[in-house]
Amino acid sequence: MAFKDKMEDSAEKVESNIILALDLTDKNRRRLLSRSLTTLESVHPHLCAVKLNRQAVLPLGLFDGVQKIVARAHDLGLQAIMDAKINDIGNTNRYIAEYYFEAGFDAVIASPFVGWEEGLQPVFGVARKMKRGVIALVYMSHKGAEEGYGQTVCNTTTGKLEPQYRIFALNAVKWNADGAVVGATYPDKIREVNAILKDKVPIYSPGIGAQGGDVEAAVKAGARYLIVGRAIFEAKDPVKTATRIREFAWKSRKR
Ligand code: XMP
What we know:
Elements: H1 3-14, E1 18-21, H2 29-43, E2 49-53, H3 54-75, E3 79-86, H4 90-102, E4 107-110, H5 116-129, E5 133-139, H6 145-148, E6 152-154, E7 161-163, H7 164-174, E8 179-182, H8 187-197, E9 203-206, H9 215-221, E10 223-228, H10 230-233, H11 238-254
Parallel strand pairs: 1-2, 1-10, 2-3, 3-4, 4-5, 5-8, 8-9, 9-10
Antiparallel strand pairs: 6-7
Helix pairs in contact: 2-3, 4-5, 7-8, 8-9, 9-11
The protein binds xanthosine-5'-monophosphate (XMP).
């Protein structure tokens, strides 16, 4: 089954489109792993997937702690996404993706700034071979996103001036990406990008809560999945908070 379909399946099964960004911090690496596993286990009924980034890979090690988290996520019926923002030359990118897939990740996030040829093409190649997914950045959630993703640039295919993120959205369709990331902090951009992606590429939206993004606004604008970190794991009661966000997001998705 393609990653896109596996995600849809997981979401429908638990009626949740919430992806937990498991970004806990702890100076003690052993405790970081056990706290990450405990958090995942307690919140998992409200999730369709878990997302890790290098903030976890660096202290825990890919084929050590991180692989344990990925295996646990799979045992719990969740998809595992590596927020690698792959962004190097093709040969390096291919090995980076291969390592993450070997560790068990179902999909990686990659940056389209490196382009297709000798950029992301090898990442898509290895993903297809290993039956995994590639999610492409289109517009990031942070304040400075405008300086890169929001620049007006010359579209090298048409020769016309266009915002960078619109070209990235067109690329996501052209490359048959399994997902496109657009920050929940920019619902107008979600709407605009969604009109380009149509139903071909689902939008993954980080930035809920801690970065100021709103669940209902993001989902109604077209976000298919919400990536939520601190708003859940830093809450007084993470399970209660995850339940509330999940129910609200799912209701907004159906409306
Ligand atoms: P918080 O705590 O702000 O965590 O809910 C958000 C998580 O998502 C990551 N992040 C992004 N990942 N594109 C991405 O691929 C983005 O625009 C983006 N913004 C935030 C962040 O690293 C954290 O894990």
